[in-house]
Amino acid sequence: xxxxxNLSDRSKLLANYYRSEGSGYGxxxxxxxxxxxxxxxxxxxxNKSSQNITAASQQTTxxxxxQRINADQSTSVRLSHQAHRGAAVDFSWQYRxxxxxxxxxxxxxxxxxxAFPSQSQTRTTGLELSLNINFGQQSSQYYAAIGNxxxxxxxxxxxxxxxxxxxxxxxx
Length: 172
Fold this sequence. Notes:
Strand order of the largest sheet: 1-2-3-4-5-6-7-8-9-10-11
Number of strands: 11
Largest sheet: 11 strands, antiparallel
Structural class: mainly beta
Low-confidence stretches: none
Mean pLDDT: 86
Order of helices and strands: EEEEEEEEEEE
Oligomer: single chain
Number of helices: 0
Strand content: over 45%
């Protein structure tokens, strides 16, 4: 069951209740306030799993802010709190430009979140800088990313990615 209710020209309330036999149920709610160059979202999520003998519940509250800085730049910040795990923060910044006469996009992402219970660390952190370059009207794309994050065993790991994607026309 879902509800989408416009409170005003700039704000709306969204709610979704779901139930799955044997899996559990949940309720997601969002209050969205839009302004000229961005929006603010307050959300609450509650899930109750009824699988097997044990029933586990999870509750998350989050506040997100997306902001368009200008035609080429935007940023977003998400602050959240999950019951029994703690607070988290996620940040991203995107910048579009032309490189070698092709559309390109830079993205800087950073996060600091509670670790999973199986990890020895209490927090996981990460930082990534990525670049995507599109050649030929989105049919060919090159991408690269470098970063640093907390690995599954709690140690720090460096990451690097380099790739190429090509859209093949008429590939029925």
